[in-house]
Amino acid sequence: MEFLAWVASQPTPPRNTEVSHLVDRTHGIWQFTKGRIRVLWFYDEGRIIVLTHGFLKTTPTTPWAERSKAVTASQAYFQAKRTERLHFLEDK
Predict the structure, then answer these.
(1) Element (H, E) at 19
(2) Is 60 left (phi over 0), alpha (psi -120 to 50) or beta?
(3) Does residue 21 sit within a domain?
(4) With 90 as the cut, is the pLDDT of residue 6 above it?
(5) CA distance 51 to 13
(6) Which of 15, 36, 51, 83 could be joined to 57 by an S-S link, Cβ 3.0–4.6 Å?
(7) Does residue 88 form part of some domain?
(8) For residues 29 and 31, what is the distance between their CA atoms, to the nearest angstrom?
(9) Into how many domains does the chain fold?
(10) Are 83 and 41 in contact (CB under 8 A)?
């Protein structure tokens, strides 16, 4: 959680580092990296980080199917938000 809070607090995303890089410029999909583990994510307003899904790396580049899955999740998220079908729960 501290790492996500740190990324959210940065004025710009940590671009092309060992831990994060942009994988889909058109849709603003980013990837966190740790060993073979990859987690795709995007920003919502207010620097909220929305994680879409994770996978194990098996190819040199992020597979198209994994990027597509993240784009679909991003589009569904923003559609739900626009139509007020998205509800946020906050820890107390």
Answers:
(1) none
(2) alpha
(3) yes
(4) no
(5) 14
(6) 36
(7) no
(8) 7
(9) 1
(10) no
Chain segment 26-80, per-residue pLDDT in tens: 999 999 988 999 999 999 987 889 999 999 999 989 999 999 999 999 999 999 9
For residue 92, tell me if it sits in a domain: no
User: Token digits for 55?
Assistant: 């996978």
Is 87 within a domain? no
The Cα-based distances of 33 to 23, 50, 75, 88 in angstroms read 12, 15, 23, 26
Q: Which of 75, 34, 37 is nearest to 53 (CA)?
A: 37
Helix runs in 38-63, H state only: none
More confident residue, 20 or 77: 77
Give pTM, 2 decimals.
Answer: 0.85
